[in-house]
């Protein structure tokens, strides 16, 4: 093909296209467009990058593939012979020295856009499609296909088409041993937890990947003082929060600017401790202009299982720790029905008190363990049948719990044993392991029986759905294997699945707060753009309470556990 070469004049296009000033101006123009897009408040960074890339490629496409090389038209060949710029480039007629620029610039912009959009699936497809439409010049039809694909993507995002869960896509990618990491997902939440005695923070993405986490536990200090002293806890939170949040962010390699939101526990908990986390978070929110998501500590515990397992609503949750004891039906991200709670203290609190009364901190094997863990450890060496404690509330026709009565009975028993053995309070009884075994077993029976009632009640009322009923057990006490065994007997007898988050997610942590933030972002629930008037709420309220009586006796399946475990 020889179009244009017969022409005696230098093609004016060639002059323009080969001038550096023109491309510099163009590059500055695209840069300016990008800055304008970035400054539009509704556009996130990924959207600004994708738009810049797509607009640039669209411009290039129109210029190279649609606009013909006028006025470079040979008189003998006429309009029908006009070639597009890219065709002229192909035939070596003109623009040949710009060829590299035309090829390289969209590729560079493509990589930049992909990087800044963290390879989010939607942006990724948009950017790839627009790149291909420019770079495959022999296929202008591709441009039409690009538009169709883009429209499909927009429709999908708008919820018109079925949206496959990101978790599924992630699982498929994972099966190829290809770890796409955080860059594939663009909802990133920083979670901050300070409701009790742990200063914790974590960054979690939309698929439940924990990108970075850090925790400072105050257990050692509180073990020495024999319990949590709120001003001490507050001071320790203050000393550590900055470092912990920084560590979580650094580990995740996410800058605060990249976060989609900051989520923080604001209830329930110790007022002084909650205050530290809240004021620190509000400073961050203000500094980086991020949405704030206030988190209910119990709801965060309850939903943690959805980070590790595929659990659909509704499901039952049992939270048992040092500060909590409740049974609830989880019907949605913020739709909870309280079925039962402790009327006095939580089981972990009781186990801690018994462990203190038994002076287990002086026991060489248990000196660094929490009370509950020390009891579990010693119980393995003891014989529970040497003591006979009765599980409380045997006749109560509801799903509430009680532990303080049992604790008094145990206290009395310990006093009596001290007299018998002739030792003073503060020394370790020779029967400590037997007492630990009996206490652990009685607590396990009580918890399992109340839970059994709740399952039967929910089944009878059709509250749990017909298939695959799930009981989730979480909280520090849930790591106790004997208690789990009792619960397993109950779930097996009622055709339920027992699920527990891994131990590090059972206790207080930042991951569960960040994950709750992700759940709320996805559901569009409780995301604040204005934090004025936000307060922490130490007292537990707001869970809907279901008052009921379940009359049937529901303890038969536990008989074997009571007798033989
Ligand atoms: O969830 P967590 O770390 O903090 C809150 O209380 O929110 O739970 C701590 C509680 C403590 O009371 C501790 O004694 C108890 O969980 N705990 C255990 C075990 N490990 C920790 N209780 C029974 N068995 C265990 N293995
Ligand atoms: Zn907790």
TrEMBL record:
<dbReference type="GO" id="GO:0061711">
    <property type="term" value="F:tRNA N(6)-L-threonylcarbamoyladenine synthase activity"/>
</dbReference>
<dbReference type="Pfam" id="PF04061">
    <property type="entry name" value="ORMDL"/>
</dbReference>
<dbReference type="GO" id="GO:0005739">
    <property type="term" value="C:mitochondrion"/>
</dbReference>
<keyword id="KW-0012">Acyltransferase</keyword>
<protein>
    <recommendedName>
        <fullName>N(6)-L-threonylcarbamoyladenine synthase</fullName>
        <ecNumber>2.3.1.234</ecNumber>
    </recommendedName>
</protein>
<dbReference type="InterPro" id="IPR000905">
    <property type="entry name" value="Gcp-like_dom"/>
</dbReference>
<keyword id="KW-0809">Transit peptide</keyword>
<feature type="transmembrane region" description="Helical">
    <location>
        <begin position="23"/>
        <end position="49"/>
    </location>
</feature>
<comment type="function">
    <text>Plays an essential role in the homeostatic regulation of sphingolipid de novo biosynthesis by modulating the activity of the serine palmitoyltransferase (SPT) in response to ceramide levels. When complexed to SPT, the binding of ceramides to its N-terminus stabilizes a conformation that block SPT substrate entry, hence preventing SPT catalytic activity. Through this mechanism, maintains ceramide levels at sufficient concentrations for the production of complex sphingolipids, but which prevents the accumulation of ceramides to levels that trigger apoptosis.</text>
</comment>
<comment type="function">
    <text>Required for the formation of a threonylcarbamoyl group on adenosine at position 37 (t(6)A37) in mitochondrial tRNAs that read codons beginning with adenine. Probably involved in the transfer of the threonylcarbamoyl moiety of threonylcarbamoyl-AMP (TC-AMP) to the N6 group of A37. Involved in mitochondrial genome maintenance.</text>
</comment>
<dbReference type="InterPro" id="IPR043129">
    <property type="entry name" value="ATPase_NBD"/>
</dbReference>
<keyword id="KW-0808">Transferase</keyword>
<keyword id="KW-0812">Transmembrane</keyword>
<dbReference type="GO" id="GO:2000303">
    <property type="term" value="P:regulation of ceramide biosynthetic process"/>
</dbReference>
<keyword id="KW-0819">tRNA processing</keyword>
<dbReference type="InterPro" id="IPR017861">
    <property type="entry name" value="KAE1/TsaD"/>
</dbReference>
<dbReference type="GO" id="GO:0046872">
    <property type="term" value="F:metal ion binding"/>
</dbReference>
<comment type="subunit">
    <text>Ceramide-sensitive subunit of the serine palmitoyltransferase (SPT) complex, which is also composed of SPTLC1, SPTLC2/3 and SPTSSA/B.</text>
</comment>
<dbReference type="GO" id="GO:0006665">
    <property type="term" value="P:sphingolipid metabolic process"/>
</dbReference>
<dbReference type="InterPro" id="IPR007203">
    <property type="entry name" value="ORMDL"/>
</dbReference>
<feature type="domain" description="Gcp-like">
    <location>
        <begin position="209"/>
        <end position="515"/>
    </location>
</feature>
<dbReference type="GO" id="GO:0005789">
    <property type="term" value="C:endoplasmic reticulum membrane"/>
</dbReference>
<comment type="similarity">
    <text>Belongs to the ORM family.</text>
</comment>
<keyword id="KW-1133">Transmembrane helix</keyword>
<comment type="similarity">
    <text>Belongs to the KAE1 / TsaD family.</text>
</comment>
<dbReference type="GO" id="GO:0002949">
    <property type="term" value="P:tRNA threonylcarbamoyladenosine modification"/>
</dbReference>
<keyword id="KW-0472">Membrane</keyword>
<keyword id="KW-0479">Metal-binding</keyword>
<dbReference type="InterPro" id="IPR022450">
    <property type="entry name" value="TsaD"/>
</dbReference>
<keyword id="KW-0496">Mitochondrion</keyword>
<dbReference type="Pfam" id="PF00814">
    <property type="entry name" value="TsaD"/>
</dbReference>
């Amino acid at each position: 093909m020889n179009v244009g070469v017969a022409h005696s004049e230098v093609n004016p296009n060639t002059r323009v296209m080969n001038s550096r000033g023109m491309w510099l101006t163009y590059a500055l123009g695209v840069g300016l467009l990008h800055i304008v897009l970035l400054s539009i408040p509704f556009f996130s960074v990924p959207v600004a990058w994708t738009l810049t890339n797509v607009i640039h490629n669209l411009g290039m496409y129109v210029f190279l593939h649609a606009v013909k090389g006028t006025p470079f038209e040979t008189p003998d060949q006429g309009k029908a012979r006009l070639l597009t710029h890219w065709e002229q480039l192909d035939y070596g007629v003109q623009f040949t020295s710009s060829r590299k620029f035309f090829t390289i610039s969209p590729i560079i912009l493509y990589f930049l856009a992909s990087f800044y959009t963290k390879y989010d699936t939607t942006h990724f497809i948009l950017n790839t499609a627009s790149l291909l439409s420019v770079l495959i010049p022999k296929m202008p039809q591709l441009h039409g296909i690009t538009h169709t694909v883009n429209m499909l993507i927009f429709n999908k995002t708008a919820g018109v088409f079925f949206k496959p869960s990101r978790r599924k896509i992630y699982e498929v990618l994972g099966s190829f041993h290809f770890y796409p990491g955080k860059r594939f997902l663009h909802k990133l939440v920083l979670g901050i937890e300070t409701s009790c005695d742990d200063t914790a923070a974590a960054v979690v993405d939309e698929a439940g990947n924990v990108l970075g986490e850090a925790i400072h536990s105050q257990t050692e200090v509180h073990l020495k003082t024999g319990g949590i002293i709120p001003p001490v806890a507050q001071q320790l939170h203050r000393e550590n929060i900055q470092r912990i949040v920084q560590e979580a962010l650094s580990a995740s390699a996410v800058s605060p600017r990249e976060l989609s939101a900051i989520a923080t526990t604001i209830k329930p908990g110790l007022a002084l401790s909650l205050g530290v986390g809240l004021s620190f978070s509000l400073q961050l929110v203000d500094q980086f202009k991020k949405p704030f998501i206030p988190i209910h500590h119990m709801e965060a515990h309850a939903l943690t299982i959805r980070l590790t397992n595929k659990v659909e609503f509704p499901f039952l949750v049992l939270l048992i720790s040092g500060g909590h004891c409740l049974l609830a039906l989880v019907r949605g991200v913020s739709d909870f029905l309280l079925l039962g709670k402790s009327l006095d203290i939580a089981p972990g609190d009781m186990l801690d008190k018994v462990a203190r009364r038994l002076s287990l901190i002086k026991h060489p094997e248990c000196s660094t363990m929490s009370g509950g863990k020390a009891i579990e450890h010693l119980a393995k060496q003891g014989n529970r049948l040497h003591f006979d404690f009765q599980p409380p509330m045997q006749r109560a026709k509801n799903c509430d719990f009680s532990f303080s009565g049992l604790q008094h009975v145990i206290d009395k028993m310990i006093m009596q044993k001290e007299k018998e053995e002739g030792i003073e309070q503060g020394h370790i009884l020779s029967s400590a392991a037997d007492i630990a075994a009996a206490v652990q077993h009685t607590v396990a029976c009580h918890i399992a029986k109340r839970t059994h009632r709740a399952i039967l009640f929910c089944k009878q009322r059709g509250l749990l759905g017909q298939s695959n009923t799930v009981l989730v057990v979480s909280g520090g006490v849930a790591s106790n294997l004997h208690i789990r065994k009792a619960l397993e007997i109950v779930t097996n007898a009622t055709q339920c699945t027992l699920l527990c988050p891994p131990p590090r997610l059972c206790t207080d942590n930042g991951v569960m707060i960040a994950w709750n933030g992700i759940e709320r972002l996805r559901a569009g629930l409780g995301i604040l753009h204005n934090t004025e008037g936000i307060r922490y709420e130490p007292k537990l309220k707001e869970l809907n309470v279901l008052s009921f009586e379940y009359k049937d006796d529901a303890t038969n399946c536990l008989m074997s556990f009571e007798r033989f475990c």
